[in-house]
Specification:
Structural class: alpha/beta
Number of helices: 26
Subcellular location: Membrane
InterPro entries: CER1-like_C, Fatty_acid_hydroxylase, Sterol_Desaturase_Related
Distance between the termini: 38 Å
Family: Belongs to the sterol desaturase family.
Mean pLDDT: 90
GO biological process, one term: lipid biosynthetic process
Strand content: 5-15%
GO cellular component, one term: membrane
Helix content: 40-55%
Number of domains: 3
């Protein structure tokens, strides 16, 4: 019979969800009231230290998370190759709870222990005391506590075997470690040598070393251990600690491997794994999907941003608006560096895939002055992929379009000997849309700018005898000119009589509220654009952008693709994967299209399903 989790296996404020930082409001209010009611000469601004430390730790840990995710998606020095899934991201959603706990306990300690008040900013003697006590008693106590807890059922249940922040242990373990780490601080404070700088520096240093052990890429140079051979007993490496997670019964030390050497718990493969990880293992990538950030806030929703946001479909969050200085800074950074960057990496059987992002946001694509720079970046990405032996590159979101690059054709015209296959994914997008339309439908209204995808859907509808109604006169002429003569009778201009009867509308994201009001009750809005239409009516049905559910064997998927649900990919992205799986030797860009039925059957045969 399963045992019931004991006391403090969850955080006391877990019921607050994402509002958990409210637990700090009373403390912050108390600190502010104390400062305001105290004479200016006697005010102790050290009361704000726990809150400054909290912000510093949150920023620091997030930077490590971003760096770790960036490196594990692209670096050859990755240590462990086990995939991360949404379940792990959900477990680690509360990585910052221990940061909140530290702030609460530090603030409480400042009032419980009078010695903790009015600390100077720095005291060298206190810093030395903290350092020596950490190297000695703290490392020793932690080693044995860690070994003991390792055999406890709570630890076995909660300890993560993946590489991330030290966050999935029960609360009791965090409290135990807090008191272990507080020993050097307490001694320094009681000796009268405590200081805010030494205490804060010690906690941040612990964070740094903790993140080093969990970053999952090796970066500690071999020359450091060759110059100082004894260093291997004093400082661990990412590969050293990774073996504790993968082998479980070895490498228990905190940051100093000394005690593992002394007590025989050093993993035998430690040195070998370090050498292999330092040299690196190059991965052969087969498919690249080329995308770009959408809104300014979407940078946080990428896998490299906030992991809990990336694991959910994109929605605008009110608190992100308060981060506008950071948002603006990030936009300027990627603009200045002007380099395509790797976002994520997945695997399907033996097929290795990456997602690259162009350093431009959606609004840049509507600027005439940016078309040339964007095309340069896309072409550069294609040529870079070509030089690395990548088989297929698919163009996502606004990286394809008739006005921008004639659906990718200009890159083939400039580089006619490309071995890499450039895919715009229009055929699969059209297949998804066509199979979303109810089979008994006799009329379909097209509202929006006609694209290559629209043409393919319209052609299939005409083949089955359905009437294609086009709302805009100029778009009607454009579409009709591309439809073969034998299907011309199926093409109809929109009028008040047929518009209000048609209950299936194919739309782009520019369909406004006024146009949506013209649709009859129960209308099905199906987007053909890369971006979703804004939903304004409750009496109609809105579909998402063309997409498909991915097969269970597609690994390392732990972020959502923009607004799509978990484990759902855009049709344009799936198209590139199919191209590589099938080994098709032709491009799909410009006016080139594939057999829509063949592409749809291929998607289903490889385990992709309608979303």
């Amino acid at each position: 019979m399963a045992s019931k989790p004991g006391l403090l296996t969850d955080w006391p404020w877990s019921f607050l969800g994402s509002n958990k930082y409210l637990v700090l409001v009373p403390l912050l209010g108390h600190a502010a009231a104390t400062l305001l009611t105290t004479e200016s000469k006697e005010r102790d601004y050290g009361l704000l230290f726990p809150f400054y430390l909290l912000v510093l730790r949150l920023i620091h840990n997030q930077l490590w998370i971003t760096l770790s995710r960036f490196q594990t998606a692209r670096s050859k020095h990755r240590i462990q190759f086990k995939s991360i899934e949404f379940q792990q991201v959900d477990r680690e959603r509360h990585w910052d709870d221990q940061v909140i706990m530290y702030s609460i306990l530090i603030y409480a300690g400042m009032f419980i222990f009078p010695e903790g008040k009015h600390l100077p900013f720095w005291n060298t003697k206190g810093a030395v005391i903290i350092t020596l006590l950490h190297v000695g008693p703290v490392e020793f106590i932690y080693y044995w506590a860690h070994r003991a807890l390792h055999h406890h059922y709570l630890y076995s249940r909660y300890h993560s075997h993946h590489h991330s922040s030290f966050v999935t242990e029960p609360v009791t373990e965090h409290i135990l470690y807090f008191f272990i780490f507080s020993l050097p601080v307490m001694v320094a404070v009681y000796a009268g040598d405590g200081s805010i700088g030494a205490v804060g520096g010690y906690i941040v240093w612990n964070d740094i070393m903790n993140n080093v052990g969990h970053c999952n890429f090796e970066f500690v140079p071999t020359w450091a251990f060759k110059m100082i051979p004894f260093l291997k007993y004093l400082m661990y490496t990412p590969s050293f600690h990774s073996l504790h997670h993968s082998q479980i019964h070895t490498n228990f030390s905190l940051f100093m491997p000394l005690y593992d050497h002394m007590y025989g718990t050093m993993d035998k493969t430690t040195d070998n794994l370090y050498e292999i990880s330092t040299i690196g293992r190059e991965d052969k990538i087969d498919v690249v999907h080329l995308t770009h950030p959408t809104s300014l806030h979407s940078i946080y929703q990428l896998r490299l941003g906030f992991s809990y946001l990336a694991s959910q479909p994109y929605t605008s969050k009110w608190y992100l608006w308060s981060m506008w200085p950071v948002t603006t800074f990030l936009m300027l950074v990627i603009w200045i560096f002007n380099c395509t960057f790797t976002v994520e990496k997945q695997k399907l059987d033996k097929l290795e895939m990456q997602v690259w992002a162009i350093p431009r946001y959606s609004f840049h694509y509507s600027m005439e002055s940016q078309k040339k720079p964007i095309n340069y970046l896309i072409e550069k990405a294609i040529l870079d992929a070509e030089s690395r032996g990548i088989k297929v590159i698919s163009l996502g979101l606004l990286n394809q379009g008739e006005e921008l690059n004639t659906n990718g054709e200009i890159y083939l015209q400039k580089n006619d000997k490309l071995k890499i296959r450039v895919v715009d994914g229009s055929t699969l997008a059209a297949a998804v849309i066509f199979n979303t339309i109810p089979k008994e439908t006799s009329q379909v209204l097209f509202a929006g700018h006609i694209t290559k995808t629209c043409y393919l859907v319209a052609l299939e509808l005409c083949k089955k005898g359905s009437q294609v109604i086009v709302q805009r006169p100029e778009e009607f002429k454009k579409l009709k000119s591309r439809v073969p003569t034998e299907f011309q009778d199926c093409m109809v201009r929109a009028s008040s009589s047929n518009r209000f009867k048609c209950k299936v509308w194919l739309v782009d994201n520019e369909l406004n509220e006024r146009e949506q009001r013209r649709a009859p009750t129960g209308t099905m809005f199906i987007p053909f654009s890369m971006f979703p239409v804004k939903e304004t009516r409750k009496d109609c049905v809105y579909h998402s952008t063309p997409s498909m559910k991915i097969p269970p064997k597609l690994e390392n998927v732990h972020s959502c693709e923009n607004w799509l649900p978990r484990r759902v990919m855009s049709a344009w992205r799936v198209a590139g994967i199919l191209h590589a799986l099938e080994g098709w030797e032709w491009h799909e860009c410009g006016n080139a299209v594939l057999d829509i039925n063949k592409v749809w059957s291929s998607a289903l045969n490889h385990g992709f399903q309608p979303s």
